[in-house]
Amino acid sequence: MFNPRFLVVSLGNPLPKYASLHSAGHFALNGLVNALRQPSFHEMKIGKQTCLVSQGPKYTLVQSPTLMNVSGPFVAKIWQEMIKQHDASSMSLVIVHDELERTLGDVRLTAWDRSHRGHNGLKSVKKSLLQTKFPESPFARIAIGIGRPVERDAATVSKYVLDKISLEQRRVLEEAVPFDIAKRLVELEDEWRTEIEP
């Protein structure tokens, strides 16, 4: 009996202090609770840190409470906690993160082993958690487009991703994007089911 569970973790800098495009994953997870008809977020201690968690029968949504660039050890800890409670072969890890190369609101399911393109949050997670140690667990990424400035120098890009988010950008991330993420999660489950059930 195929009964998959998903640990869905958003990367970003902690809200509400860092309400920027770099925290697009957190904003999207806020709305994903409604899109998946999940219980509301509540504060809970997980991975030895207090963070916002929404726990349903299939999906556990977690907003990483750490700064973006050091997300890895936290994600590795909560993954270890989850596979102690549930068989690793029934667990999938999905990381939700911002993506400069796509237009605002464009949502893509991305293979785990694709390049992190200099995304420090992804770099940190991949360094802390090796997919090869969990061959029976699908690891995947859901990239949310945030657009990018015309100039590509590091200072301009950094200012763009870290500036305060506009109300319109936030509306796209919290209201439109979550329904696309929900669709990608179904796609991921269908792919997984096809691999397991010949």
Structure in words:
Keywords: Hydrolase, RNA-binding, tRNA-binding. This is peptidyl-tRNA hydrolase. It is an enzyme of class 3 (hydrolase). Belongs to the PTH family. The structure is a single chain. This protein is an alpha/beta fold and 198 residues long. It has one domain (5-196): Peptidyl-tRNA hydrolase (Rossmann fold). The protein is built from 5 helices and 7 strands. It has helices at residues 24-35, 72-85, 120-128, 154-162, 167-196; strands at residues 5-10, 42-46, 49-55, 59-63, 91-99, 107-111, 139-145. A 7-stranded mixed beta sheet has the order 2-3-4-1-5-7-6. Strand 3 and strand 4 form a beta hairpin. Helix 1 (24-35) packs across helix 5 (167-196). It is globular and about 50 Å long. The mean pLDDT is 94.
Corresponding CATH superfamily: Peptidyl-tRNA hydrolase
Q: Uncertain regions: pLDDT < 50 for 5+ in a row?
A: none
Q: Compute the CA-based radius of gyration.
A: 16 Å
**Tally of helical runs:** 5
* CATH architecture identity: 3-Layer(aba) Sandwich
* N to C succession of SSEs: EHEEEHEEHEHH
- Using the coordinates shown, work out and report the CATH topology: Rossmann fold
**Into which percentage range does the β-strand content fall?**
15-25%
Number of strands: 7
Major beta sheet, specifics?
Answer: 7 strands, mixed
User: In CATH, what is the class?
Assistant: Alpha Beta
- Output the strand order for the largest sheet: 2-3-4-1-5-7-6
Secondary-structure content class: alpha/beta
Residue share in helices? Answer: 25-40%
Organism: Metarhizium rileyi (strain RCEF 4871) (Nomuraea rileyi)
Family: Belongs to the PTH family.
Keywords: Hydrolase, RNA-binding, tRNA-binding
Enzyme class: hydrolase
